[in-house]
Design brief:
With about 300 residues, this protein is of the alpha/beta class. The chain has nine helices and nine strands. The strands form two sheets. Strands 2-3-1-4-5-6 form a six-stranded mixed beta sheet, sandwiched between helices. A hairpin with a 2-residue loop joins strand 2 and strand 3.
Amino acid sequence: MNSRTEHKAGFVSIVGKPNVGKSTLMNQLVGERLSIITPKAQTTRHRVMGILSGPDYQIIYSDTPGIIEPKYELQKSMMSFVDFSLEDADMVVWVVDLTDDTEAEKVIERLQKVSVPVLIVLNKMDTSDQAAVVAAMEKWKGLFPKADAVVPVSATEQYNTQAVMDWVLDKLPVHPAYYDKEELTDRPERFFASEMIREKIFELYSQEIPYSTEVAIESFKEETAIIRIQAVIYVERDSQKGIIIGKGGESLKKVATWARKSMEAFFGKKVFLETFVKVEKDWRSKERSLKQFGYKLD
């Protein structure tokens, strides 16, 4: 950005198919671990905003769920977060796996409808050589000619992410700040507490268990030296409740211990965490349950 005489501010929607590194990239750009990250696809379910403010700019990044063909009501709600983010966007960052162009048409279908600048970010460039990176840049530009630019990065290694930042700064519209300069996100602390528990469930359990699970924070009490949190882990079937708890409660204890450590690092103080498990049958397909858990429906 050549001129610093006018304040700039805008919304940046970060999109892509599942498991391409969108959340990692946003966390790197904002400088805070706001979005949970696991190796499993569809870890992100909500739209998570990360706010980065400078002396004369404010960037509001939106990490969104991976774009899929929805099969049930929860996934429909997740895709609505993507659409809302694109409607608000002043620009779009489309993150792709440098070596994998499968299902690109699902993202392109949505991006064809936007009229704002689009940057294609080729992630995981650290897994390829220079010739492969150059070839991939040409291929992706051909797949989506509307793209303003194509930038290779390695989000995990923080390589070339500054090029993404420079592009965003250059495209920001002139506008006053939308949020207070000290704010990092629009989400409350309860949200991050629930996400950290859900992250550990994704890390510790396999198959369908993580996808059938939701976390609700029943109580969040911050005291001078400690935060006291009560959380309920919801599953869809009685058999899943048994798996979450584990023999003698050991599995649930491990989830709580790992989540508590993440919370203490995030909140910067001691955390006392109590976790319970309840069954909410077929919650992923019920409008009432989805509204209870904060998912917006069309």
